[in-house]
Amino acid sequence: MAPLCAALLARLLLGQLSLVPAWLSGAGAQADPSFQLRQPQKEMSVIAGETLTLTCTVSAGRPVGPVKWLKGWGSGNETIYDQKEPSSSRGTRAVNGSNTDFTILIRDVRPEDAGTYYCVKFRKTDTGDELYRCGEGTVVSVQARPSNPTVSGPSRRVEPGKTASFTCKTGGFFPSDIHVKWFKDRAPIQAQPILITPGPSNFTYNMSSTVNLTLQKDDIRSELTCEVRHATLTAPLNRSYHLSHILRVPPSVLVAQFPDPVGLNKTVNFTCDVQGFYPGSVTVTWLENGTEMNTGSPPRPTETPEGLFELRSTVAVQAVQEKNGSVFTCWVVHEGQDPIGSRATLRVAASYQKESNSPNPNGSSLFIYVAVGVVCTVLALLVVAILYLIRAKQSKGKSSPSARLHEPEKSSGTTTQESDPNNLTYADLNFTKEKKNIQRIIEVSQQSEYACIQSSQAPASNDNLTYADLDMVHLSKAPRRPAPCPEETTSEYASVQIQQQ
Ligand SMILES: *[C@@H]1O[C@H](CO)[C@@H](O)[C@H](O)[C@H]1NC(C)=O
Ligand SMILES: *[C@@H]1O[C@H](CO)[C@@H](O)[C@H](O)[C@H]1NC(C)=O
Ligand SMILES: *[C@@H]1O[C@H](CO)[C@@H](O)[C@H](O)[C@H]1NC(C)=O
Ligand SMILES: *[C@@H]1O[C@H](CO)[C@@H](O)[C@H](O)[C@H]1NC(C)=O
């Protein structure tokens, strides 16, 4: 900055031509050519809040006049230190009272303190202090740390599945180079490009970074972290945001009746299960056929391991006949949203037999299985018993063979008798199987069985004996055949010939 200082000196000289001879001569007389002003620092970088040390030394002795520290040059200059008024100065002397060391300290540097500082020696004249020498200037840059970041979320709670925007902000930093990273539970997430705007003062910047995140139900325990890195920071600045602050998980609502159906005049419980909601406050209202019921306050919600809440509200109802078919509705209002409802219809069992007392549906079905098993077993036993009885009866009947002949009905009139040319007699047969008697009967087939039919009159001869196939004894009228009458084994009928008197 020596050229600037020299140029100013030149301008001062030109602007005060009348003074030139006096100044030049005076300079020659009063100035000490060996006078030296040294401002060795060309550039200084300081972090806001710290103390800035600006060094300047001058040689002892003449000329007489104060030393000042100016910030800026020209019309915009600002006096930082004035040897004549040290108490009102922003800068303070490093070595108090020294005539050669004009090093100053600027404490608690602010971003606005950035600029070029000049150490200037003035010479006292009759008309006032005149600029005599100036240093080359020290360019001071003030680095500013970013403020602690803030993270803001949506102004209203957001349901899972929806996207929410989160913004991380910090400000007052210099230089403008800044880096932001986002994490969700330590996993990096992609953010929008950061936005850098002028900060509170012209020497600093503000930054804003936004991420869009689709929320999930299990984000209740998750947190977002904004991490800011800047040249002034030895460690990054972090700010976390718990997603539970803005997440709203609506409950699921389910009403059930226990027992269902309920016996007449018994007490039935309607339960309303309100599950998986966040935050953990709900209002539960019961309606009976649309009319609000006076139920006590519901139990407090309990927290699940996932961080959600649940509660069960119960109302007891007497299952009188008039209430059969009544509708019980559970209304749940969560976080000022529209109510979520679930309903159930009271079912009163028509009879006590239908009632299931077991509140445990598994237990009742087990009971049904056992009952069905028992009934089936009893039925099976019954069938076996009946079969056994039939068998026993059959074997008993066979044990006493008998044959009873039905004489043609005399009372039915002569026409009946005359219409029956064979004039046969019907017989009930109950035969004992016996071995065939070869001497008496002509054998037709090996499968045939034989039986004797004893009529009231003893047969006169072998010719009058009749045989029958016992597998299918079916007596019917048949055309008269010459006796004895050998039958085919396949016959399903037999002729019984009774000698008429
Ligand atoms: C500083 O500013 C004042 C007026 O504001 C001006 O008179 C003076 O010449 C300036 N000094 C320098 C060294 O520029
Ligand atoms: C910059 O940030 C500061 C706080 O850090 C804030 O007061 C100011 O309003 C912000 N300015 C802009 C332009 O964002
Ligand atoms: C049920 O209660 C009503 C009156 O409360 C009564 O008239 C009726 O007999 C009761 N029925 C049974 C099956 O107990
Ligand atoms: C209740 O209503 C159901 C269906 O309308 C019916 O089957 C049942 O018998 C009724 N119960 C009584 C106790 O009337």
Folded structure, characterized:
Strands 2, 5, 6, 9, 10 and 11 form a 6-stranded mixed β-sheet that branches. Strands 12-13-17-16 form a 4-stranded antiparallel β-sheet, with no helix packed on it. A hairpin with a 6-residue loop joins strand 5 (67-71) and strand 6. Residues 10-29, 354-363, 397-403, 405-421, 423-427, 431-456, 464-477 and 490-501 have low confidence and may be disordered. The longest helix is centred in the C-terminal third of the chain and has 39 residues, at 361-399. By secondary structure, the protein is of the alpha+beta class. Helix content is 14%, strand content 33%. The N and C termini lie far apart (172 Å). The chain folds into 5 domains: 2-143, Immunoglobulins (Immunoglobulin-like); 150-245, Immunoglobulin-like; 252-352, Immunoglobulin-like, CATH 2.60.40; 359-399; 400-501, no CATH class. The protein binds 2-acetamido-2-deoxy-beta-D-glucopyranose (4 copies).
Task: Fill in the keyword field for this structure.
501 residues, single chain, 14% helix, binds 2-acetamido-2-deoxy-beta-D-glucopyranose, disordered C terminus, Immunoglobulin-like, four-stranded antiparallel β-sheet, alpha+beta
Output the radius of gyration. 62 Å
Any idea what the CATH superfamily of the largest domain is called?
Answer: Immunoglobulins
Number of DSSP strands?
29
What CATH first level of the largest domain would be assigned?
A: Mainly Beta
CA-based shape: rod-shaped
- Average of pLDDT: 78
SSE class: alpha+beta
- Runs with pLDDT <50, length 5+? 10-29, 354-363, 397-403, 405-421, 423-427, 431-456, 464-477, 490-501
Instruction: Give the CATH architecture of the largest domain.
Output: Sandwich
How much strand? 25-35%
Reported for the largest beta sheet, the result is: 6 strands, mixed
CATH topology of the largest domain: Immunoglobulin-like
Number of domains: 5
How many helical stretches?
A: 4
